[in-house]
Automatic annotation (TrEMBL):
PANTHER family according to UniProt: BLR4505 PROTEIN, IRON-REGULATED INNER MEMBRANE PROTEIN-RELATED
Keywords, comma-separated and alphabetical: Membrane, Transmembrane, Transmembrane helix
Transmembrane segment boundaries: 12-33, 137-159, 188-208, 308-333
Keyword Ribonucleoprotein: no
Keyword Hydrolase: no
Domain of life: Bacteria
Pfam families in the cross-refs: PepSY_TM
Protein known as: PepSY-associated TM helix domain-containing protein
Amino acid sequence: MNRAQLFRIHKYAGLTMAALLLVQALTGALLLYRGPAARWMDPSAMVSHGRAPLISPGAAVLQAERASPGFAVSRLFAPDADNATWLAEMRGGGGRTRYASIDPAGGRLLRAGTVWHFPVEAALQIHYRLMAGKPGMMIILLNALALLTMAATGLAYWWPKRGPISKHLSIRWSMAFRLVLRQAHRTLGVVMALLLAFMAVTGSLLIVPDLIEPSAPIVDRTPTDAAAIDRGLALAQSAFTESALRDFRLSTDRLTVNFHAPERNPRAVHRAIVTLSAPHIISATRAENNGALWMTILPLHTGNSFGVIGPILLMIVALGLLALCISGPIMWWQAKGLRRRTLARKQTA
């Protein structure tokens, strides 16, 4: 493949996906600090304000469902910090979804509504599936493949045949803006190419298993019994006595409980599945025995595997991608305008 072909592939992939990549960069940057970002952006709904005694998870489920008649809690996220709230995800007829935040101190309902009432949750749904289920996930996968293609073709197009690499990455700031922008786009893209390819590959590996897995059927739940939920959680906790609750899913007569497992990695979970009626443990799987691909890939994609510096580095990558998504179309528009002006001069000559 010659350089002209590499350039065309890089250009058209970028122009096709620039807007979507820009959205991915913005939402991804926000999600790197999901909990703190939610509390900073929306303290009225995502920060605990009370000083009353803490409520139980079952009581939080009951409070969320009281605020949204016709909806049943399908998942409840535990507070991830001392001043955080319970966050309930609820399902209703026709696959409708609502969310509710509940203050763990006293159980006051802070907010209930669609995902658009919870900006960071909306960012998550946009980033992962464009609010469109599996069709949206397929588009996100194509977007990741386009990013991988652009990283590879851009690097191959730039690769110098002779001379020091630093010379081919330098930017001549004294030149015209159009040329400075072109050089800055080139240098930023080359420097970030491997990291962007890494993000594209890990993002694809997160999406593919969910794409090929059959969608779980939506089932009607019996009325919530807060005491039964709390008993089931206590039983699940007995399998992992030293682990903190991350979240749990509710189905007709089953509770699937995830506990934090930082001893494996920052995103890993121990999982216990218990029944609600005639409570007993169906299974208890430690994180190190769980072969789910996401448990290995997610902390890489979010940077948590690399300690404190990981999310900071990926924030820089997200901002860099944002700059590339803006500068690329501007360069194309400038080149198109230059060709028009050149053609006009030739016709009038």
